[in-house]
Design brief:
alpha/beta; Rossmann fold; Glycerate kinase, domain 2; 6-stranded mixed sheet; 13 helices; globular; disordered C terminus
């Protein structure tokens, strides 16, 4: 399925074509809004943009895939359990009559928790399991689950419980929510899980390739950003290790080392226990939105997201865009709200929004700064061109958000 907008650009000089393929700027702009802002800057520089918003399984994946279905996709809203146990209203996507899309961040995401209320030890993935159950009850025979942006580090225990699996302590009582509850786990029984799981194909779009455990795993790499102290991180690592041991002791093969098992606080691991396939989320989404077709004949690719750092290369959407651009022989440049690592192996050039105008807050003026950044980069890489009619000095864009 094709998801990009070219505005008739295919008939134009290909040396002027610029593919605008950003991920969401988390907490600031959706991928689609970011692509539109970048495209305006490209036009200001006299080139011709093709908008291809992308995602990798994290925040915004649902919106990108629904838009790519061009009128076929739809969204329903449901009351489910939030990461701290309070009810939230979360969206469930339908990419076709029996093909559902669940974005974990909708029900169990960091964006659902106030920064001062973060609770890495007790946050749960239960709401995500409730969305999956709703899709199964509605007759879905394929479910795609995007598992980035989580608030939890529970190894997927909460979502498994919501699907009917029994995770119990030595007294046969269901364990409590969160990674801390895993410390009491004595038995996992999947026999009570939703019967439709057996006939449903479940693919998990992982935004990282991390295993469940170790320095690159769910706890040691990511729990701190969910509010975990150093002591909490050690405790969560031990709890997830205990989960893996209990799961292996019940006759299931060890899934803790599968790439993506550590995604979303170990929800990748929990979903694998339920029979799901763990896939590279960025690869899956870029295929779905038709990125390769958009790259054909283009002269430049502009991607980006809120933060470019060492984790960008571990499965994030801008890295996938860069790899595909390299295969197509096209330079790829990246714009980040913040650039911690320029990642020269991936990008020909990187630019942070803060570097455009240090006096301007990138979160308040992200659209304007993205437009200015895209104008500057397109001009620098492709050379001077006749700007779009009616465009004035790009420094005025802040006054025209």
């Amino acid at each position: 399925m094709g998801g990009f907008r070219d505005g008739g650009a295919a008939a134009l000089n290909p040396t002027s074509l610029v593919v605008c393929a950003p991920n969401a700027f988390k907490g600031t702009l959706t991928a689609r809004s970011a692509a539109t802002a970048i495209a305006r800057g490209v036009r200001d520089a006299g080139a011709h943009p093709i908008e291809v918003p992308v995602a990798d399984g994290g925040d915004g994946t649902l919106g990108v895939l629904i838009a790519a279905r061009r009128g076929v996709g739809s969204v329903t809203r449901h009351r489910v359990t939030g990461p701290l146990g309070h009810p939230v209203i979360a969206r469930l996507g339908w990419l076709g009559p029996k093909e559902a899309m669940v974005e974990l961040a909708e029900a169990s995401g960091l964006r659902r928790v106030h920064p001062e209320a973060l609770d890495a030890l007790h946050a749960t993935s239960r709401g995500t399991g409730e969305l999956i159950r709703i899709a199964l009850d509605a007759g879905a025979d394929r479910i795609l689950i995007g598992v980035g942006g989580s608030a939890c580090t529970d190894g997927g225990a909460g979502l498994l419980q919501a699907l009917g699996a029994r995770l119990t302590d030595t007294n046969g009582v269901e364990i409590s929510p969160g990674g801390a509850g895993l410390e009491d786990l004595a038995r996992i029984d999947l026999a009570y899980a939703h019967p439709a799981l057996a006939r449903c194909s479940i693919d998990v779009a992982c935004d990282i390739r991390s295993p469940l455990l170790g320095p690159d795993g769910a706890a040691m790499m990511f729990a701190a950003q969910k509010g975990a102290s150093a002591r909490d991180v050690r405790r969560l690592e031990a709890a997830l290790s205990h989960l893996a041991v209990i799961a292996a002791g019940h006759g299931t093969r060890d899934r803790s080392t599968i790439p993506g098992a550590g995604a979303a606080g170990g929800c990748g691991f929990g979903l694998a226990l339920a029979g799901a396939r763990l896939l590279d989320g960025a690869h899956l989404v870029c295929d779905a939105v038709g990125l390769d077709a958009a790259l054909s004949g283009a002269a430049l690719v502009i991607t980006g997201e809120g933060r470019l750092d060492s984790q960008t290369a571990t499965g994030k959407a801008p890295a996938e865009v860069a790899v595909r651009a390299r295969h197509a022989g096209i330079p790829c440049i990246a714009i980040g709200g913040t650039v911690v690592d320029p990642l020269p192996a991936l990008f020909a050039r990187t630019l942070s929004l803060g570097a455009i105008d240090p006096e301007v807050d990138p979160r308040l003026h992200a659209r304007a700064l993205l437009r200015r950044a895209a104008h500057r980069l397109t001009h620098d890489i492709l050379g001077p061109r006749t700007p779009a009619v009616g465009v004035s000095d790009p420094d005025l864009y802040i006054a025209q958000p």
